[in-house]
Amino acid sequence: MIKNPRWARYWPDHVVVRLATIGSLGKLKAPGTWGSLAGLLIYAVVTAHMSDLAAALFLAAASYFAIGICGEAEKRLKKVDPGEIVLDEFVAMPICFIGLSGYMGQSYSGLIILAGFLLFRLFDILKPFGIKRLQRYHGGFGVVADDVAAALVVCVLLNVGTRIWLG
After folding, report:
1. Cβ atoms of residues 68 and 3 within 8 Å
2. Handedness of CA 148, 152, 158, 161 (dihedral sign)
3. Which of 42, 119, 153, 166 has a CA that sits 20 to 30 A from residue 10's CA?
């Protein structure tokens, strides 16, 4: 059994819940979509300007942070993987674009971003390829792991597709 990191249990309720729901994004209709859109913003502002290795390390650390916060938010909200927790989508969305820095900044980069967003939402909702089984884990790991797995599948598809399409 994978346990939640302990550090988040010492944080105040309002901080944990606000982080997990990205302020009020988790209260909007279709919260996962809003969390993913916010993740695109993090990609554009932060990780798009990093090397692929630096982005991967940053997003691995962000995923660990999300595991702690999301697991603690589950306890405080007294719900299992509630829809209002969107930190998982927020952190996972930029993972879709690792390895594509050489293709971004071109006229077709908007298409790559749109494809990444749509594929991520599709895989996050449908959870194919065994992704759904990751939700069986308790706590923050179960909340975050399925989104990270969906993002990794999208990352592979985008990297392969972009290289075939653009050479």
Report:
1. no
2. negative
3. 42
Q: Which two structure tokens, joined as six digits, stand for 70?
A: 């999301």
pLDDT digits (tens, 9 = 90+) for 31-41: 999 999 999 99
Phi-psi region of 105 (alpha: psi -120 to 50; beta: other; left: phi over 0): left
Alpha-carbon Rg for the chain in angstroms = 16
Give the integer Cα–Cα distance in Å for 156 and 126: 17
Mean predicted confidence (pLDDT) in 81-105: 94
Pairwise CA distance, residues 53 & 51, whole Å: 5
Which tens digit of pLDDT belongs to each residue from 119-144? 999 999 998 888 888 878 888 999 99
User: What distance lies between CA 5 and its chain's CA centroid?
Assistant: 18
Comparing CA positions, the residue from 165, 5, 34 lying closest to residue 93 is 34
Output the CA torsion 55→58→60→62 (10° steps): -130
Residue 64 has pLDDT above 90, yes or no: yes
Please name which of 155, 148, 151 lies closest in space to residue 63, comparing C-alpha atoms. 148
Task: Give ∠ CA 51-55-167 in degrees, rounded to 5.
Answer: 55
Measure the CA angle with vertex 31, ends 69 and 103; round to 5°: 85
Q: How high is the pLDDT of residue 1? A: 59
